Amino acid sequence: MAASSGRSGRRLWAALVPAALLCLAARAAEEPSTADFDVRPGGEVHSFSRSLGDYTCTFTYSAQGGTNEQWQMNIGVSEDNLFFSCSVWRPQGKSYLFFTQFKAEVKGAKIEYAMAYSQAAAGGQSDIPLKQEEFEITETTVSHREGKFRFELSKLMIVAKTPHDEL
């Protein structure tokens, strides 16, 4: 599934999803998990992964320029176990690294909504979403689109629907 199309739809999602993710984290059946990690330049491919119960989120990237930047990954499962959320971002807002590729992958759930941002909200600044043509969304991944991605990334957000048994 893709993010909502159209500028007004994107603004609506941009306003609603952070609130929904906060609710997911606050009402999590298992304690949400936040982990710090360094995004390292140098052109090599690196991955960072976290799991919560049956669900896993993995962020894979390659970046150039600058020095290590501290980033965070937050994962959570809703109280009703219907949604798994994964957010990856630079808490300081804008990354100064030049990303040559990125991919966030979820295991154990299918992506319902995802969005990528060139700048994360910080210091009174708002999130700035990537243009839709810069990234692609599949059932389990959000990744850069070769030849369209403009090398700026500061935040990824994913909400995935978990499989559940009907009674």
From TrEMBL:
- Database matches in Pfam families: UPF0556
Q: Is this entry keyworded Lipid metabolism?
A: no
Query: Signal peptide: which range, if any?
Result: 1-28
Q: Name one GO cellular component term.
A: extracellular space
Q: Which GO terms describe its biological process?
A: positive regulation of angiogenesis; positive regulation of endothelial cell proliferation
Which UniProt keywords are listed?
A: Signal
Q: Which residues form a coiled coil?
A: none
- Protein name per Swiss-Prot or TrEMBL: Myeloid-derived growth factor
Q: Which organism is it from?
A: Spheniscus mendiculus (Galapagos penguin)
